[in-house]
């Protein structure tokens, strides 16, 4: 899928500030992503709803029932895919492949095909974003209390400069050596990989692809706020989804038609801790070794791949309210930014995101 028909990005808008550029008087905003081809016909007129827990969060699925496949088989297939992702990529599971690599002694270690594929993709995105997404920050994630060792004690001081420097020295995407012929990665000793900025989106893609292979060509998958829609509902309507807003945001309610496309939102409000009256976000900047503190409240990315939407939402959040939109526009991403400022929240959007905005509001 290629985004077409882009227009110039609108200037930054003070949300709720009475700017004439705002869509005053509209209850809803509607996004219609472009389609390269008409959506496929739904396989039936029955919609099933499934859900559960995975990866420390919840998952849900709405599936148009395919002929000859019962609800239990689809539920089992989804859980099988999710369990497979956890078995490879969860650092909270001692027996997972990532945990084994993170705890391995120095040496070159062969990787399974799923592990290699995601690591290779993460390294490509790290290269494209100059490390704004970095799969080697596991030591920093643990240090700041967002990893398997658990949160920092409430009465503990913040990590010292020396501790941050030591954790940074164990990571760095540019220093991770890969042996492509052997499908292996070099563990110099102490390096901890972490795919938290990409794994949920990857899981969404895997589930979506598995359902499609089973004939469930029309479905909506959500894992911890990352979504992907395929096909349309039996009535021909798209899968309408409300885009997550930062708490207390005065922005208009925004709906998007997820037809063969994915959506990811990164927010500084999702996971954080407070220390001496200040909040520290779970999103870390590998360049500083510290949680981001750039004013961005949320970044939303629309992309054909949920994995890439997830990764780029994280990367743009790390880049900040100025470099992020500049990169997103140059890279050709459909992205929306909300920045907290003393005047109130300000939104920015790339031309490709702006091109999806409908002129008329639509009720859910």
Automatic annotation (TrEMBL):
Residues that hold Mg(2+) according to the record: 197, 310, 314
Pfam families according to UniProt: ApbE
Gene Ontology molecular-function annotations: metal ion binding; transferase activity
Catalytic reaction equation(s): L-threonyl-[protein] + FAD = FMN-L-threonyl-[protein] + AMP + H(+)
SUPFAM superfamilies: ApbE-like (SSF143631)
Cofactor note: Magnesium. Can also use manganese.
Top-level taxonomic group: Bacteria
Region annotated Disordered, chain positions: 1-44
Keyword Protease set for record: no
InterPro entries cross-referenced by the UniProt entry: ApbE (IPR024932), ApbE-like_sf (IPR003374)
PANTHER family, sorted: FAD:PROTEIN FMN TRANSFERASE, THIAMINE BIOSYNTHESIS LIPOPROTEIN APBE
Protein name as annotated: FAD:protein FMN transferase
Species: Brevundimonas goettingensis
């Amino acid at each position: 899928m290629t985004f077409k028909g882009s227009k110039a990005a609108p200037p930054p808008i003070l949300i709720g500030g009475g700017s004439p550029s705002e869509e005053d008087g509209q209850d809803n905003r509607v996004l219609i992503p472009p389609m390269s081809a008409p959506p496929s016909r739904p396989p039936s007129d029955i919609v099933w709803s499934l859900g559960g827990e995975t990866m420390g969060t919840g998952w849900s699925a709405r599936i148009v029932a395919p002929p000859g496949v019962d609800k239990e088989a689809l539920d089992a297939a989804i859980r099988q895919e999710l369990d497979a992702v956890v078995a490879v990529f969860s650092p909270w599971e001692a027996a997972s492949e990532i945990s084994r690599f993170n705890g391995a002694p120095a040496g070159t270690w062969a990787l399974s095909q799923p592990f290699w594929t995601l690591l290779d993709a993460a390294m490509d995105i790290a290269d494209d974003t100059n490390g704004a997404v970095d799969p080697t920050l596991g030591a920093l994630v643990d240090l700041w209390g967002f990893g398997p060792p658990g949160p920092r004690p409430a009465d503990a001081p913040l990590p010292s400069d020396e501790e941050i420097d030591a954790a940074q020295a164990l990571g760095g995407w540019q220093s991770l050596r890969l042996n492509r012929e052997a499908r292996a990665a070099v563990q110099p000793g102490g390096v901890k990989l972490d795919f938290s900025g990409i794994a949920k989106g990857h899981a969404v893609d895997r589930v979506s692809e598995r359902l499609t292979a089973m004939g469930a060509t029309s479905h909506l998958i959500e894992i911890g706020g990352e979504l992907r829609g395929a096909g349309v509902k039996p009535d021909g309507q798209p899968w309408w989804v409300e885009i997550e807003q930062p708490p207390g945001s005065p922005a208009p309610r925004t709906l998007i038609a997820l037809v063969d496309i994915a959506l990811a939102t990164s927010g500084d409000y999702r996971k954080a801790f407070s220390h001496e009256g200040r909040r520290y976000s779970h999103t870390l900047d590998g360049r500083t070794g510290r949680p981001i503190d750039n004013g961005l409240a949320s970044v939303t990315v629309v992309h054909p791949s949920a994995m890439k939407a997830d990764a780029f939402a994280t990367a743009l959040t790390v880049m900040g309210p100025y470099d992020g939109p500049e990169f997103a526009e140059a890279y050709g991403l459909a992205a929306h930014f909300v920045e907290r400022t003393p005047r109130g929240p300000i939104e920015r959007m790339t031309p490709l995101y702006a091109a999806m905005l409908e002129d008329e509001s639509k009720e859910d």
